[in-house]
Amino acid sequence: MKLLEPLDIRNIQISNRLVLAPMSRMQANEDGTVSERMPLYYSNYARRGVGLLMTEALYTDKISGRAYFNQPGLCTAAQRDTWRTVVSAVHDMGGRIFAQLQHGGRLAEPGLNPQHIAASDGIAAGNTWQTGRPNAAARAATTSEIKQIIECFERAASYAVEAGFDGIEIHGARGYLIDDFLSASTNRREDEYGGSLENRLRLPVQIVECVRGVVGKRPISFNMSLYKMDDLSYTPPGGEAEMTSIASALETAGVDLLHVSTRKALRDEQWGEPLVKVIGAAVTRARVIANGGLKTLDDCSQCLALPGVEAVSLARALLSNPDWLSMALERRPLETYVPGMEREALRIA
Ligand SMILES: Cc1cc2nc3c(=O)[nH]c(=O)nc-3n(C[C@H](O)[C@H](O)[C@H](O)COP(=O)(O)O)c2cc1C
Fold it and tell me: Can you give the residue ranges of the NADH:flavin oxidoreductase/NADH oxidase N-terminal domain (predicted)?
């Protein structure tokens, strides 16, 4: 069964192709350090056979980068030191773990950051995810702020290396800052960071290049999606060709894994299965992790049979069933995800 086959990415060996998708649990300490249950919470997934774990989104700066209250960070030495305990607990169980680095951008909880910045002036539709309050008006980042944001990703990546993480995942999805720059619907800048696709790609590419500079041979994953927290139907102006160009540019910049987040990876909606296939066909060296709506072993097998797909990631199915792999292999009934479960205390067994 392909799901159970090992996977080598750059210099690391992963025991199988089951990935824990990044999932914000918003239960870190106030100062963004890892809280008491987090090492056991993460290592429990490794103990239960998940080959590769993506952390929840970690903020990279305290000026504008946080997305949620009680989100963990990776921008101070104290935060880095507490991540060491998570990483070694996961390694002790034979698992691998990547740090997912994020900038919250326009989707940050109101009042959380001293500066609320985005690609362009504006306000995301609807309410925030964590507290359900109306999104706050954001202003366009200045060029010097963009430079600082890139430097903060670079610093977070070097802290991740020092903490022992096996790789980095860059959160480039769902309308947070990097995706905000990448998307024509939200990026209305007229400088070198907006307008043409090449310009919209500039921030993501510069972040990948900087991270590559500090992580050396470790793998870099890029989490991408078309749908956004405040816009489920975004279509890029250049259609499939644009997505192909984005995947190629990221690969050239140094990405080893394209983590394609869809709402349903197996659904034949415009950007479900077709997106996975487009990205699978676009990459040459990089591998694709497919994500979205996968619940059963059969879902995973079907997805792993798509051209170019080398791994699958599950979020909600693993949240409601930490022992998903054994349960699925033994065809035992699975628990269903109930919205809001992520706010419950971290399960450590
Ligand atoms: C509770 C929860 C928290 C999430 N947090 C993150 C996150 O921190 N970073 C991220 O890239 N995606 C996040 N996601 C999106 C998931 O990684 C995944 O793309 C999405 O849930 C679809 O996969 P699924 O159908 O297997 O749940 C989150 C999803 C859920 C349900």
Answer: 2-334
Q: Is 24 in the pocket of ligand 1 (CB under 6 A)?
A: yes
Cα angle for residues 270, 275, 277 (degrees, 5° grid): 125
pLDDT tens digit string along 102-126?
999 999 999 999 999 999 999 999 9
CA distance 145 to 46: 38
CA of 24 to the centre of ligand 1 (A): 7
d(CA 251, CA 253) in angstroms, rounded, equals 5
Residue 2 φ/ψ region, left for φ over 0, alpha for ψ in the -120 to 50 degree band, beta for the rest? alpha
What is the DSSP annotation of 160-194? Answer: HHHHT-SEEEEEEEETSHHHHHH-TTT----STTS
Residue 349: what pLDDT?
Answer: 85
Per-position b or e across 57-81, b if 16+ CB within 10 A of its CB: bbbbbbebbbbbeebbbbbbeebbe
Q: Are 290 and 312 in contact (CB under 8 A)?
A: yes
Backbone angles phi, psi at 13, to 5 degrees: -105, 130
What is the DSSP-derived secondary structure letter of residue 49?
T
Tell me how far CA of residue 211 lies from CA of 73, 136, 255, in angstroms. 16, 30, 10
Residue with token string 């610093």: 155
Span from the CA of 22 to the centroid of ligand 1 (angstroms): 6
Mean pLDDT of 258-275: 90
Phi/psi for 85 (5° steps) reads -70, -35
Helices (H) and strands (E) in the chain, counts: 11, 13
Domains and CATH numbers, the chain: 2-343 (3.20.20.70)
123 CA → ligand 1 middle, Å: 22
In this structure, the residue with its CA closest to atom 23 of ligand 1 is 292
Task: Give the mutation target among 18, 19, 23 for probing the ligand 1 site: most ligand atoms within 8 A of CB.
Answer: 23
Q: Which residues are catalytic?
A: 176
Angstrom CA distances, 318 to 20, 85, 294, 296, stand at 7, 22, 10, 11
**CB-ligand 1 contact for 57 (6 Å cutoff):** yes
